[in-house]
Design brief:
The chain has 649 residues and is of the alpha+beta class. It has 5 domains: 135 residues; 105 residues, PAS domain (Beta-Lactamase), CATH 3.30.450; 98 residues, PAS domain (Beta-Lactamase, 2-Layer Sandwich), CATH 3.30.450; 70 residues, Orthogonal Bundle (Helix Hairpins); 152 residues, Histidine kinase-like ATPase, C-terminal domain (Heat Shock Protein 90, 2-Layer Sandwich), CATH 3.30.565.10. Helices cover 46% and strands 25% of the residues. The protein has 20 helices and 21 strands. A hairpin with a 5-residue loop joins β12 and β13. The longest helix is centred in the last third of the chain and has 36 residues. 19% of the residues are buried.
Length: 649
């Protein structure tokens, strides 16, 4: 059984006078507190407590009580009357006082000498009543204190240096330290073992300072039995009596939340500082007299200074002389209105070059008094120059727009809708007639030659027949293009889509195109990756579109030129770039390149080609949700850029 004294609880009871009365009256006496629900004596008022205290308690009850002393039985009793009736003196001249405060039993037992009892009876009753009252008040105060300590994140303690033991530990120890009062009393090194290693030296210096009689405080990291880390603030003050340190009273507070808040504030300050220092604007703060107390480095560098060179100097020292009166007026407006102000001034660079700044400044208030200013300035020199240029351009633009409107009105008067339709009709007839007449003329001419000359050599007949066949195919292809384009444009055509490897298709098309270019002494380069790129499309129409592009390229290139095809594999689409360094296409022709029946004469072919073929190509890629762009310059060549969506697996 572990026995210890709690002197704080009954410190207001006059035991010295009571003990004097005991010597005159009592055969024996004893007072102690038993923790409710626990077989453990936690307080005793005997003169001295030593290893024989437990035996003294047992002997006392064996001598004077009718019941056998059983601490376990006592700790289970729940009511004052049951507790008091449990202890009865063998002599009728005895009294057991009991008090139950809900958590602790207090037993105060006195058995009297029967010879002196009558003489001192009245005085004894008064003492007993006084003890009852003082015990009741002590328990009420104790209960309030314990309730208070249980609600705060702090441990209050009193340590007896003489006995090297705790006189008192508040019931919040478990909550704050993760160890109970009993565990601390059983091993005083419990707390020391759980202090972070980096803080051990500081903690030892802290305790050393206290033992030397100086109040001290120390913050340290603490790891509870459950492995939870926290930060504690430990304040202690030695109690000196007769020149000697008798006790140490202290408070251990859990400051984890405060520490975390401070750390977050420090991080926020660091981030805010980084933000200010990385900003290209001029950010500053002034004291109440207008002197710079903070400047960001980039802002100072923009004026040719370092922040250290600017600190401590007056704001007006960096302003152009002609601006100082306006700055003073702006500051006066801020002082009178106590609100944010906006102003523009010229600050002088270290090399005396004026730089136009736009400022926003706000007063720093302490109570109702202004004790400084916080501001941000932005270099607007270039912006002001650009604004001046824009204003001049706007004036010219308005004049240009006026002239354009005049010309537009004049054009509207000259061109009617009927004239435009007539022009389009004539252009259509002319282009189609040309495309039909050219192959027909070849077919008819060579056919008449074969028919009229029976002695024509066989090899010449074969050559003329080949020309007739080629021109016939050309004519058929042109008619097919017109029909296909008509279907695609009207929305009546359907795409026969299927999954296939576009790389394989482009290899086949490139191989055929290479032969055609080689026959015309044009070099051909293909950069096609050895990969599998699956698309979902109408293979036949795509083959027709790419063949048309290569045929068009052949028309716009000449012997000695070069052509290339490059394939690029993107995340969701495949890119095809077909380039040549041929004749190129003029800006005017490029604008109408995909218009129906538009023709250009800048080719190496004998006759120009109608734009129906490229219009059909554009329609095919559009119906595949693809992209077709053309870039070209006269004498530099032409580039076709195609993008087709991939099949997403």
């Amino acid at each position: 059984m572990h026995i210890w004294v709690n002197v704080n609880l009954l410190m207001n009871i006059d035991f010295s006078g009571l003990l004097k009365l005991y010597k005159e009256l009592s055969d024996a006496s004893l007072s102690f507190i038993i923790k409710a629900g626990k077989p453990n004596i936690i307080l005793s008022s005997t003169d001295e407590l030593n290893a024989e205290t437990e035996n003294i308690i047992h002997l006392f009850y064996s001598e004077f009580s009718e019941n056998k002393f059983d601490i376990k039985t006592i700790s289970q009793l729940k009511y004052t009357d049951v507790l008091q009736s449990h202890f009865k003196c063998k002599s009728i001249y005895g009294n057991f006082l009991a008090n139950l405060d809900g958590h602790n039993y207090h037993l105060f037992a006195i058995c009297f000498n029967s010879l002196n009892i009558v003489k001192k009876n009245q005085h004894l009753d008064a003492i007993i009543n006084s003890i009852k009252t003082q015990l009741s008040l002590s328990y009420e105060l104790h209960e309030k204190l314990e309730l208070t300590f249980s609600k705060i994140d702090a441990v209050v303690y009193s340590y007896n240096l003489k006995n090297e033991s705790y006189d008192y530990i508040s019931n919040s120890a478990k909550k704050v330290l993760g160890i109970s009062e009993e565990e601390i009393r059983a091993s005083q090194k419990q707390i020391l073992r759980k202090i972070a290693r980096d803080d051990l030296k500081g903690y030892k210096d802290f305790t050393k300072k206290i033992r030397q009689g100086e109040p001290a405080s120390f913050d340290y990291e603490y790891k509870s039995k459950a492995g939870k880390f926290s930060f504690l603030h430990h304040v202690a003050e030695p109690i000196v009596e007769d020149g000697k340190i008798e006790k140490v009273v202290g408070v251990i507070s859990d400051i984890t939340r405060e520490k975390n808040i401070i750390n977050k504030l420090k991080k926020s300050e660091q981030r805010f500082g980084m933000l200010i220092n990385t900003a290209i604007d001029f950010i500053y703060s002034l004291n109440g007299f207008g002197y710079l107390v903070q400047v960001n480095e980039n802002g100072a560098n923009a004026l040719g200074y370092t922040s250290e060179e600017m600190l401590g100097k007056h704001f007006l020292d960096f302003a152009a002389e002609y601006e100082k009166n306006d700055i003073s007026k702006s500051f006066q407006n801020m002082l009178s209105s106590k609100s944010t102000i906006h102003f523009e001034i010229d600050l002088l660079h270290k090399l005396d070059k004026p730089i136009k700044y736009e400022f926003l400044a706000t007063p720093l208030l302490e109570g109702n008094e202004i004790n400084g200013m916080l501001g941000i300035g932005r270099d607007i020199t270039r912006r002001r120059k650009n604004e001046e240029i824009i204003n001049n351009l706007n004036a010219k633009l308005k004049e240009t727009q006026r002239l354009v409107e005049i010309e537009r009105d004049r054009a509207k008067q000259q061109i009617t809708i009927l004239e435009e339709i007539n022009i389009l009709k004539n252009e259509f007839i002319s282009n189609v007639s040309h495309e039909l007449r050219t192959p027909l003329a070849s077919i008819v001419g060579f056919a008449e030659t074969i028919a009229s000359d029976e002695d024509l050599p066989k090899d010449l007949i074969l050559e003329f027949s080949g020309i007739i066949l080629t021109e016939g195919k050309r004519l058929a292809r042109f008619i097919d293009d017109i029909l296909d384009f008509s279907e695609l444009e009207s929305g009546g055509a359907t795409l026969n889509k299927e999954e296939f490897n576009v790389i394989e298709m482009l290899h086949q098309i490139s191989a055929k195109a290479k032969e055609d270019f080689k026959a015309n002494n044009i070099s051909f380069t293909s950069l096609i990756p050895d990969a599998e790129i699956i698309i979902f499309a109408d293979r036949e129409k795509l083959v027709k579109a790419f063949n048309t592009i290569f045929e068009n390229t052949l028309r716009f290139t000449k012997s000695g030129d070069s052509v290339s095809i490059v394939i690029q594999d993107f995340l969701k689409e495949v890119g095809i770039v077909i380039s040549d360094n041929g004749n190129g296409i003029s800006e005017n022709d490029l604008e109408f390149l995909f218009h129906k029946f538009h023709s250009s004469g800048s080719t190496n072919a004998a006759t120009p080609t109608a734009g129906i073929a490229l219009s059909l190509v554009k329609q095919i890629f559009d119906h595949h949700k693809g992209l077709l762009q053309v870039k070209s310059s006269i004498g530099e060549g032409t580039t076709f850029i195609i993008r087709l969506p991939k099949k997403i697996l």
